Amino acid sequence: MPSFRVHVIIENKPGISDPEGETILRDLVLKKSHDSVSKIRSAKMLKFEIKASDNRTAEKKVLKLCNDLRIYNPLVSQVTLETFAL
Amino acid sequence: MGIVVFPGSNCDRDMLHVLSDVFKFDAKLFWHQDRLPKNLDAVVLPGGFTYGDRLRAGVIASHSPIISDIKKMAEKGLPVLGVCNGFQILVETGILPGVLLKNDSLQFMCKWTELIVKNNKTPFTNKLKMNQRIAIPIANGEGRYYVDNKTLESLKKNNQIVFQYTEKINGSSDRIAGVCNKEKNVVGMMPHPERASEQLINPKNSGTTSKIFESLMISIGAA
Fold first, then answer.
1. CATH of the domain at B56
2. Active site residue: B84, B92, B142, B214, which one?
3. Which pick of A65, B74, B101, B129 has the fewest CB atoms within 10 Å?
4. Domains present along chain A, CATH in parentheses
5. What is the domain range of residue B65?
6. pTM for the complete prediction?
7. Helix (H/G/I), strand (E/B), else coil: A19
8. Which residues of A touch B62 (CB under 8 A)?
9. Would you call B102 and A19 a contact, using CB atoms and an 8 Å cutoff?
10. Based on the structure, what is the number of domains in chain B?
């Protein structure tokens, strides 16, 4: 069975503040005169390697696992999945 | 009385000392992979850093085998207390509403705070007066209690806010320091009552903070 790498990017939902991203923007990026940057959001990424019949099944399996095990807290976080064939 | 020990709990023995030596409860530690005996009167989830706070504070411990017994005790209406990491575990299991996020300062905060009692009808607050102020320390990095506005309104309506900080300290919704479930038998709080219930280690007023445990004595019929 083919293997896939699924990137799970966990970040706060748009309405939830992200003090880490705000600090990086305010106290580092803007202080160094990179004025064109308007927003930074921090995130956590987990890289899963998984066997599955195809790309879509791999992504579906990982998303189900993330929901079942509360890999992210749906009250405040959202996930984005990116899948690559290995 | 049971105190649950998870890998990375570090306030379990402080809690055992206070419950056994100060308040004379028959308290015992239980490893997270064990079952809880059916005749327990109450259970406490102590503070610490279970699994090194990996992924998110409390989330890995919330899948421990002992959690099913804690859920059963909660459903039966028995008193359940989660302190600090114990509170984080209780929200991750879904027994208590909301979530605990990183403090808005992004710093680990270790300081004395003052709480206002907002619900004195729980097993842990029945000896306190409404709006009474108690001195108690916090020690956490992920202590910012968050609920959306709709849930906040339902918490207020159902009297589920148990403690509020007197000041804005970490960005918590409505300055919330502790909440309970709808049935009021499960309480979670970020501050540490076990670090504030003896005169020797409380520079302010241990007498009022002690009432949290004195309330529990009344609740289980030991007082």
1. 3.40.50.880
2. B84
3. B129
4. 3-85 (3.30.1280.10)
5. 2-219
6. 0.93
7. helix
8. 70
9. yes
10. 1
